[in-house]
Amino acid sequence: MRQLIVLGFVGLLAQLIDGSLGMAYGVTSTTLLLAAGIAPATASAAVHFSEIGTSLVSGISHHKFGNVDWKTVSILAIPGFVGAFAGATFLTSLNGDAATPWISGILLALGIYVIWRFLALGGRRPEFKGRPGVKLLVPMGLVGGALDSIGGGGWGPVGTTTLLSSGRLEPRKVVGSIDTSEFVVAVGGSLGFLFALGSSGIEWSIAGALLVGGVIAAPIAAWLVKILPARVLAIAAGGIIILTNARTIALALGASSTTVTITLIALAAAWIALIVHAVRLERRTRQTEPLAEVGAEVTTGS
How many domains does one find in the chain? Predict the structure, then answer.
């Protein structure tokens, strides 16, 4: 019973992060399950089944707060489903260890770019023109869905990072659209695991505990996305991208646990400082906007 309560809290925390920043539910939950000695396929299956419920509630919540771009979701859904089903079906025969550091390197670079892009604006408001097209969304959906099943998490890191770096959608709609489309990805991955493992291979109690915690956190996370300024939200997401992938790369390079810990602490400190800086920029921008509007009215009136 105590283990289920702990897993429920993990599901709550993971969904709070995922629903606010568009990633980390699968990574957080799967990491804990693997540390507890659960087999990779079994852990990923439990996470995906819990995600069916959490992503559904999250999608509904994001929709109510206006955080979803449905055209983006409709394009992402099918390739995400196909990628997740294929990744789950062949999880036991595929080895993603060799490709993981390279993928993490790309995501790390994109995370740095996202932070730079929004900080480089200074006091100006970010602008978002157009929508991401089929040529970007289809391959992103296939890769993100497959990695999500193989590694127990990947839809958010790949999707959120790619869309944020494209500059086509404002951050809250990036997060909302990725979280909403994750429902289809979770269904595809879960069907693949049922096909590969059978129902007896699924730890339903673990999936249920994660689900309960995630469902509680989903509406709160969607509300946070609604109220957070685009600049602050993007830098917060960019920091999660950098921290997650820096850890993966450091471990792949054989760094000691002490080195990894010191590196992550340093990066986390820099990340917090950047968020504080972003909040100050946002306040400064809000203070100067009324003055600019008054100046424009005076000029028009004269």
Answer: 1
